[in-house]
Amino acid sequence: MITKIRRLKNIGKFYDYSAKGDGLDLHKNTFLFAPNAYGKSTLVSVLCSLRDNDPKVIRARKTLGIIALPEAVIIIDGVNHVFNGNRWDKTCPAIQIFDVPFIHANILSHEIEHEHRKNLHRIIIGAAGVKLAEELSALKTKEKNKRLRFEGLRTEFNRGGFVHHALDAFLAIHTTEEADVTARIEKLEKDIKSKETETQVRALDLPSAIAMPAFDLSTAKTLAAKKLAAAHEAAEKLVLEHIDKNISDKSRAKEFVRQGLDLVHADCPFCGQDLKTAANLLEAYREFFDDAFRSFQTELSQAAVSLDNWNIENELTALLSSNNANTATVKQWEPFIGAEVLPDTSAFVETARTKLTASKSKVLAELEKKHKDPNADGDLSQFDTMDAALESLKTSVESYNKAVMDFTAKAKDYVDKLPKSDVDTLQVVLAKEREIEKRFKAEWKKWATDYPIAKNDASDLLVKKDAKQKELETYTKTIFDTYQKRINNLLVTLGADFTITDLKGKTDERANESYSDFGFLILNRKVPLKVRQDDAPCFKNTLSEGDKSTLAFAFFISSLEKTPDLDKQVVILDDPLSSLDETRREATARVLLELSPKLNQLCVFTHNKDFLRMVFDKIPDNTVLQIRSDKTNGSWLEPFDVEEDRKGEHAKMVEAMQRYVLEDFGSAPDTMQGNIRKVFEVVLKTKYYRTLTADIKQKKGLAKLLETLFGAGLLDAALKPKLFDLCNVTNGPHHGEIVDAPSKKLTRDELVPLISEALALLEKV
After folding, report:
1. Maximum distance among all alpha carbons in the chain?
2. 244 and 359 co-located in one domain
3. Same domain flag for 276 and 394
4. Are residues 598 and 681 in the same domain?
5. What is the layout of strands, in order, in the sheet containing 71-76?
């Protein structure tokens, strides 16, 4: 229980308040009166800050123009709770407050928005329900996060470009595929490339075998080894001697002699001499120039010419050219069957060039030597050397051509094995294989691990969330039914002409928030909280401000009654419905009377004295304080005497008159003199109101009132002289008539007996 507001400094209008003197303790039922703007709401804010341990609430109320920090000391159950300007040293959460902020937060006077419905929902379902709702909210948050994670992974898959594998099929790809997929992709890529260039491939040339530079030395070698008969040898010698002796042009001599011999008939064609004496010479000529000899010489000449005409350089160069052409052809196949290399021809061609060129010269020399001396022994090794060089070249050429044949076979095999499927089909198969390959990339391996976990987590939390949702729905159904019934009972008690209906809890799935919804029954017609059309009945335009405050109070009381440990709660009510009509104020006081015994403490703050008197009269065991304030000292608390305050003006004037007679107390004599008349006017107007109605409306004074009453026979005629005399003393005569005019001023000594007489007359009228 709050025992005392000990200290309030630099907070609102509480410039420097300290509780001093008696009567400032708070009791179980404490009522505090203060006009508006004196500091009631400031004090409530301090208690809110204490309850919520929220320093900002007090700092927001800091006295304007003051640098020093705010201070507060509240005694609760005999223990100081100190606010040092920055924080409370201890809090008191068992404080329930009904004030304007509560109304605005829950039943806004203008319109109930979503935030108000959320707040009402928390109030209605209570601590147990809030716990369930918080558990549900936590599960929803977790479920949402897991679902978003799961959906994010699914979206990541959808954006991953997997066209040929549905998600489940993608996950089902076995790990053994990782080792094989690369080879399959390489083959498919090769097949596609081949298929795409099939026409080009089929149009490619194949390398050709190179031609072997050939020359048959066998005839020349045979001629070089051949010898003519001895006669031929002697004849040749004789002929050569004759030529040497008789013919100057040796190079043309043999031909000359041979042709001349063909022309001989009997005598010498030159001198006509008989040739019988030259028979031996002529015989030699005939032997030398016979067919065998001529043929042998011709063959030697032809062999020499043939060898000499054999252009080894051209043939070897042609061989190199053929190789270059083949190399270019093979290069064209490289994109399809890979890099292939034919043997290097330059090496063996250059070797052959060197050997064959040297051998050729030597063989020609041997033939020339044989031509000169057909019976000379030829050096056949030169022919063998040249044959060996040709054979070596042949071996190299054959090896080269074997490589050409192997390449050709490989190329043809490649063409024969070109894929039968079309490119589009192969592309689809390749795309599938690449998706399989992608499955084993690091990021997708991780994805394939994370996705099933996220899916299971989301599924598990969804089950838990739904179970908690059902648990909360079961709990809230009973709570809402009971709550609606209690609110409607309170609304009837408080004199409201409406009730609520269809009170239920709802959930905003998008915002993951619970809220309450309800409608109103007014004249048996259902009115919703909110409508789209401005001209349709709803909370905003159907309930008065008083109705809305009453509804907020009914919600507060209903929720308060369900608070655990209600007997430990301190309840603060800041002007609860005190601005309403007397009937509702009376009903509110009855509700508080019923509530008070259930609480640890009830504190009612109000600016309305009528309401203050109601709760003061109805709720026993109370104390009343008030807030006083002035510009110099600010605000402070002091005791408040309700009985003294409720006295009427005439009662206060009578008491003042009595004290004036008995003590040296009261106002100035002229004021007391006028009060005599006022007291009689109030008493007569109150007692004889119906008779004096016309005079009262015409604002007649005491003299006229007495005339009317004596004329009506309502006053004892024996009192007339004394009453008119009293009237004359206080008002004075005018033109022979009693009129309401100020009388002469009297002294205290003159007034005391006059007042005593007036008090005696009051008992008689």
Report:
1. 235
2. yes
3. yes
4. no
5. 14-18, 2-11, 71-76, 79-83
